[in-house]
Amino acid sequence: MSLSPTPRSTITRLRERARSAQGDLYAVLDAGLVCHLGLVRDGAPVVLPTGYGRIDDTVYVHGSTGAGYLRIADGAPICLTVTHLDGVVYARSVFHHSMNYRSAVVHGTARAVTDPAERLAALRAIVEQLSPGSWEHARQPTPRELAATAVFGIDLAEASVKVRTGPPGDDEEDIATGGRWAGVLPVRTVFGAPEPCPTLPPVDVPAPEHVGAR
Amino acid sequence: MSLSPTPRSTITRLRERARSAQGDLYAVLDAGLVCHLGLVRDGAPVVLPTGYGRIDDTVYVHGSTGAGYLRIADGAPICLTVTHLDGVVYARSVFHHSMNYRSAVVHGTARAVTDPAERLAALRAIVEQLSPGSWEHARQPTPRELAATAVFGIDLAEASVKVRTGPPGDDEEDIATGGRWAGVLPVRTVFGAPEPCPTLPPVDVPAPEHVGAR
């Protein structure tokens, strides 16, 4: 299945970096931990980092019902962007310096999720995106915790995916001139060793598989 | 010097995570490689990842003069957000799962930079933010390359910084109950080994210090 571009989800700049398969969109979204959520408040954009989760063709975000930015979200136009930086691209010219990356930009309308079953599934997807295995391991939400949590869904119907890979695109003259290094410095996101909570009795529970083996 | 909050740069949710020193803002911005830039297009938000650089109290972004999103930027309200994910916070309850992070949100107006000296300084700052040492090592921009590049400055007068560190904030009852792991899985961004450009003669130029020792 392929993404159906609309004017705002059609990539006009560096088209060769555009990806058009639904699977590419899923892959970029599913590999992320943080998205950047854009809203319009009093005519100005606001961009905030937050966690998210995906179920089929809906991406979910959540927050406290007390969070100001979520109070304006229901029915509002929204943009959700996930970016992975994969490398710094060093060229012979400063002009051709670049980044290798994968990014997904989702344009849509925030829909307040009120159905209890969908809310629970969305929260599970958000927790599992950040910390796979946690939904089973940790204590489930109470009615009071659920009441304090706002959940929004955004349809993936209108989205674009952009990917850059590979070496720099230097000009022929600069390549011929020589004498300058060019290439890619890979960038990776890695996990360190788990740091147990100080309130955890030392011998009570070791870091479980879903944390320690990540 | 401290940040002077305006209504939109005042953190109302989880105030204990707010930082108010100018130095905190600089530190978050200076440690980043990618920002997420928010603009309003036809009433809807657009959030795009891009490089950036800072000089004193201005943060700069650039792009091709052919890029659609930059054509709408001059004089427009803009939001520039930089986020560092430092850890996944595993709590005993799914409700208290969180992230450790540092984020800066800059609200402002995009100013098209036209002065040649400021443009060059801004481009240098952007290149050096992504790849320190490259401005000296690589070929400088030609007049034609400069003409193809749009540069925008955003004043740092209106910005907020938010930082979460430390272990999860579990409820006392969950701590007392025991049996569940809690703690932080650190997240780090690391560089891999430099990958030389295939067009580089193998013995011509080794990866220079500013790349290899990063």
From TrEMBL, chains A, B:
Superkingdom of origin: Bacteria
Gene3D superfamilies on file: Electron Transport, Fmn-binding Protein, Chain A
Protein name: Pyridoxamine 5'-phosphate oxidase family protein
Organism annotation: Pseudonocardia xinjiangensis
Lineage: Bacteria, Bacillati, Actinomycetota, Actinomycetes, Pseudonocardiales
